[in-house]
């Protein structure tokens, strides 16, 4: 009889498999590009940008869910991430390999889809800074949609919930809306809408 897996270790392992599964796949004999830098090169972006956009892709595809809880002292909304793409780690190694390959391929396709929208200067290459800004704006938009979804529309409250100054929150809100407005329809459907 197998010992049960410690839930905390299980969640850590699953998170590592999702975000760093390429290296793990190579140990299982997976096919395709074996490292993130070759996938980043194929997507025309820096490796750091690729990781940032994979985080966004995981959220957009529902592999990772964000929930929020309010910190009563600061009024900030603190994000909690939950992995929704848990592979069966006790599965046959071949089944596990195929499942992880499919997950990596799905994330890669999404990164390629959103990559041009992250290319702020239109150079055809997404820099690490561009990828990080795209990820940060996506996360801010997600938080803002949650905040405004509670029925409030105050910018000062949004700034407090995000842990930002009012000017920075207003700038992020403006840049988020500009980003969404500039994206093609097949991408905007993945972005949370913000009224106000």
Give the secondary structure arrangement, pairings included:
Elements: H1 7-27, H2 36-42, H3 47-60, E1 64-70, E2 77-83, H4 93-118, H5 128-148, H6 155-162, H7 166-182, H8 185-188
Antiparallel strand pairs: 1-2
Helix pairs in contact: 1-4, 2-3, 3-4, 3-5, 5-6, 5-7, 6-7
Structure description:
The chain has helices spanning 7-27, 36-42, 47-60, 93-118, 128-148, 155-162, 166-182, 185-188; strands at residues 64-70, 77-83. With 196 residues, the protein is mainly α. It has one domain. A two-stranded antiparallel sheet has the order 1-2.
How helical, in percent, are the residues?
55-70%
Cα gyration radius (Å): 18 Å
* Range of strand content: 5-15%
Q: Count structural domains.
A: 1
* Distance, first to last CA: 57 Å
- Principal-axis shape equals globular
List the strand order in the largest sheet. Answer: 1-2
Q: Give me the strand/helix succession.
A: HHHEEHHHHH
Taking the sheet with the most strands, its summary is: 2 strands, antiparallel
Low-confidence stretches: 1-17, 22-33
State mean pLDDT (0 to 100 scale). 82
Beta-strand segment tally: 2
Number of helices: 8
> Structural class per helix/strand content?
mainly alpha
Keywords, please?
single chain, 196 residues, mainly alpha, two-stranded antiparallel ribbon, 8 helices, 2 strands, disordered N terminus
